[in-house]
Amino acid sequence: MEQTASVNADPAQRPDSAARCTWWRNWVAFWLLGLCNNFAYVVMLSAAHDILKKQESGNATASSSVTLPVDFQGGNSSNSSRYDCNPVSTAAVLLADILPTLVIKLFAPFVIHKLPYGFRVLFCVFMAATSFLLVSFSSAVWMSILGVIFASFGAGLGELSFLSLSVFFSRDVLGGWGSGTGGAGVAGALLYSGLTQTGLSPQVTLLIMLVVPLGMLISYFFLLVPPPSLPQWTNRETQYVAVGSEERRRLMDGPEEDEQDKSRPEDTTGPLTFTERLHIIKGLLRFVFPLGLVYFAEYFINQGLMELLYFPNFFLSHAEQYRWYQTLYQVGVFVSRSSLCCVKIRKLWTLSLLQVANAVLLLFAVRYLFLPSAWLVFVIILYEGLLGGAAYVNTFYFISKETEDRQREFAMAAASVGDSLGIALAGLAAFPVHRYFCSL
């Protein structure tokens, strides 16, 4: 037991290089798992747009309803609004991308424990690879949309599975996971844009990106060093015996926190009942509500307001301004999701209120056009990404820290619904707002 605790404690306290190597392998593996899990989700919409654009060249109606929300083109040929509006809000594609993820996060935590982690990872790899292949070789609109849905299902299942998986390792791996998911936004956008900019077709670019699901496979099965307690290929619902509970606590907390835990009563053994799961969800609301509110405000800005924040006299075109908004947002998310090793924020409601203040400020800015320059919007959008990423990574860190050992695996999976629910509600709210401003 003492050896296990030392392996997962702080690197500076570990007695040998093998233990330090194991710690770094696990941290890097979770970073790569976060990157690979979100990569297809990030890339798929812009890739689907490029291919749908070719497929729908003879169908103007379908093209405007499917492709415009993905890659904002600018121009207001369809109405006489004072805003440079697309006929359809970008929230349309946001909903198509987030709803499958939301569905799987709502229901999977109650049954996913019956599926061993090895099979979950194989399923996520299959979904990501299939999404790239479907969109690359699609000959009809429905095939490309199906590819987006596959990417969404794979990312949703992967997120709740890898968050649950983290309870078998040092809590430090959550920092690696958060940083990797943040890096997926930046890397996905830059890599796809860079490859297509060099002259490669979207189809060839997507085929090259099949290396990403392969990277997930290698990271999980060859780089990660799983503990013996991990249910890799078998369903072991009865593994929560007293020794296992104590071992898991040592893995998560290290020796310095273990002394504080000796006074706690021993966890009840056995798998969680349905009633217990509902009770855990009730206790998670103090984390899920702030996280959902942050993401509601965040994606209300991104999908309801961002395309309306256009400055005609700026040196960037409308489409270029919009792309830089998205890029700076992803940079902010990446930086803050990588900050767990430096700063931890327990007051999650503070992040929620600050993000709501951002949304209100930009809503009035769109309505009354009082912001003087796009430069100021760039700063606000970067700040928005910082708040969103910090809310995500700190939420799951403190859930992991404050949840009882036996409940932690389910809690990490169940809480992942918070961000997706907020995003879906933001997409719904963005429709009437977009319609209102474009009708002015």
Notes on the protein architecture:
- The protein is mainly alpha-helical.
- It has a single domain (2-73, 83-254, 272-438), classed as Up-down Bundle (Growth Hormone, Chain: A).
- The chain is built from 17 helices and no strands.
- It has helices at residues 2-8, 17-55, 60-66, 91-107, 117-137, 141-165, 173-197, 202-208, 211-223, 242-253, 255-261, 274-305, 318-337, 348-368, 374-402, 405-415, 417-438.
- Helix 1 packs parallel to helix 10.
- It is globular.
- It starts with a helix and ends with a helix.
- It is found in: Late endosome; Lysosome membrane.
Looking at this protein, list some descriptive labels:
440 residues, mainly alpha, Growth Hormone, Chain: A, globular, disordered N terminus, transport
Topology:
Blueprint lengths: L1 H7 L8 H39 L4 H7 L24 H17 L9 H21 L3 H25 L7 H25 L4 H7 L2 H13 L18 H12 L1 H7 L12 H32 L12 H20 L10 H21 L5 H29 L2 H11 L1 H22 L2
Keywords: Endosome, Glycoprotein, Lipoprotein, Lysosome, Membrane, Methylation, Phosphoprotein, Prenylation, Transmembrane, Transmembrane helix, Transport
Organism: Collichthys lucidus
GO biological process, one term: regulation of protein metabolic process
Total strand segments:
0
Q: What is the overall silhouette?
A: globular
Q: Classify the helix fraction into a percent range.
A: over 70%
CATH class: Mainly Alpha
Average pLDDT confidence is 81
Radius of gyration over alpha carbons? Answer: 22 Å
CATH architecture identity: Up-down Bundle
Counting H and I runs of at least 4 residues, what is the number of helices?
Answer: 17
The SSE string, one letter per element, is: HHHHHHHHHHHHHHHHH
Q: What structural class do helix, strand and pairing data support?
A: mainly alpha
Superfamily (CATH H level) name: MFS general substrate transporter like domains
Could you say what the CATH topology is called? Growth Hormone, Chain: A
- Report the uncertain regions: 1-14, 60-79, 240-245, 255-267
Largest sheet: none
Count of the separate structural domains: 1
Pfam families: CLN3
GO biological process, one term: regulation of protein metabolic process
Family: Belongs to the battenin family.
Subcellular location: Late endosome; Lysosome membrane
